Amino acid sequence: MVSLLDIIGPVMVGPSSSHTAGACRLGLIARALVGGTPEHAQVELHGSFARTGVGHGTDRAIAGGLLGYHPDDERLRESLTAAEAEGLTIEFKNTTLRGDHHPNTTRITVKRDGKTAVLIGSSLGAGRILVTAIDGFPVEVTGAYTTLVAVAKDVPGIVASVAGALADDSVNLATMRVSRRQKGGEAIHIYELDHAPSDGAMARILALPVVKTVRIIERVA
Amino acid sequence: MYDVLLEAVDAAERDGISLGELALRTEADTGIRTREEVEAGLRRALKVMQGAVERGLVGDLHSVSGLVGGDAHRLANARGPLANTIFTDALAAALAVQEVNAAMGVIVAAPTAGGAGVLPGTLLGIARRHPVSEEAMIRALATAGLVGAVVAVRASLSGAEGGCQAETGAAAGMAAAAGVELLGGTPRQAMHAVALTMQGTLGLVCDPLGGLVEVPCVYRNATGAAMALAGIEMALAGVEFPIPVDEVIDTMGQIGREMDVRYRETAGGGLAATPTGRKLARERLVQLKPRKK
Hints:
The structure holds 2 protein chains of 2 kinds.
Chain A: H1 4-7, E1 11-13, H2 17-33, E2 40-47, H3 48-52, H4 58-66, H5 79-85, E3 89-95, E4 104-112, E5 115-125, E6 128-134, E7 137-141, E8 146-153, H6 158-168, E9 173-180, E10 186-193, H7 199-207, E11 211-217
Parallel strand pairs in A: 2-3
Antiparallel strand pairs in A: 2-4, 4-5, 5-6, 6-7, 8-10, 8-11, 9-10
Chain B: H1 5-15, H2 19-29, H3 35-58, H4 71-76, H5 86-102, E1 106-108, H6 118-129, H7 134-154, H8 159-162, H9 168-182, H10 187-198, H11 217-236, H12 245-258, H13 275-286
Helix pairs in contact in B: 1-2, 2-7, 3-5, 3-7, 5-6, 5-11, 6-9, 6-11, 7-9, 9-10, 9-11, 10-11, 10-12
């Protein structure tokens, strides 16, 4: 369903909806995975991001996202300086990721408060993004919804427990996906939600004995 | 939203309303956003467009590579044979928005960042000499959105998929319909304006130097606005294009699918592959290697 505001929009800092706006959104998601501005980030640029990213401000856009700036925030232009001021060190490098990846793809590794998170994400055009891996788990996160990311031991009934906590909180699920690296190991749960769950619901999910981490990614698109 | 433009024209005629009004009602009927929310979104877009034109016309901006900047100001202040006309105002405004875009300023992707100058250029160029209400401008943006939505479904709005005909070409078609509505034309004239404009941008390749949204993108937004004005003027005079607009849009999609990858934003062909294009890209990009921090 194409909306008028998809066509006349988004309002964004130029020059490229894919290389700038989409890149910023990937930075925002990496930030959300560690719950705030990281202390350190390694940003690996793949494909067209590597070839033309700097000219398109992809580096500044990702840095801005890591600082919590949105695609329409004029501070994106000066985000590398702001990152330094805020104690965020960023290491950029060009890479060729193994496997099949969209031409505009980045791998972002962020560290904050002793926590580390890694995402692989692509900018698909017109500012739309798709995160395809979080911490090594295959995922599909578009950022179009508030997204709950939980990592839990792969045991029967866990999906019902997490979904139950959300249902009790009157949070409607738009999509749900569970994936794992191996049977009986750890699985990642991705729930796209119509609105953010309460702190109480988050605590209830985290209190489930097999749940290791639970994170919220706010809507970025 | 509609996926057949002719059906939208029929519906607007049946209800005795403009295409913009039809688009606003249709969008509200989907229930995803209220009419007020859609209008508020378009009002914000209009403000950002106006701000980008003003900012760009100052003339002090430079793109990241330094290849573009200052031409909007140059054109707006020149005394050429077409000075002080809608035509020159529209071209200068289109350049202004794209110069802001290339300098990492705030713009409205309409439908994309690379084609963001055509619609505000055309509409604000017209509005400068034909004062219109803000409500009329918002309805005109809705008209443009309706046309863009049809193009998105039937063809493409991405240079990587369909070449520049899908970015500045689509933007010109959107601007043509919006301009006709702004100047009091009928939905049918708006439809012919889209066809008359987009027949002129068919086959346009996407060939940016170094893959950056700078050259020729900035200038192609000005020529896109010129194409839209040509379509508007012909349609308002009663010129009717013999091929139905939806078939023109389909043709754009078909040409895009058959277009060699070199002409789809890869900098592998067209102006990007000229000796000077390659040289400029090499010289300007060499200083822009990602730095280690």
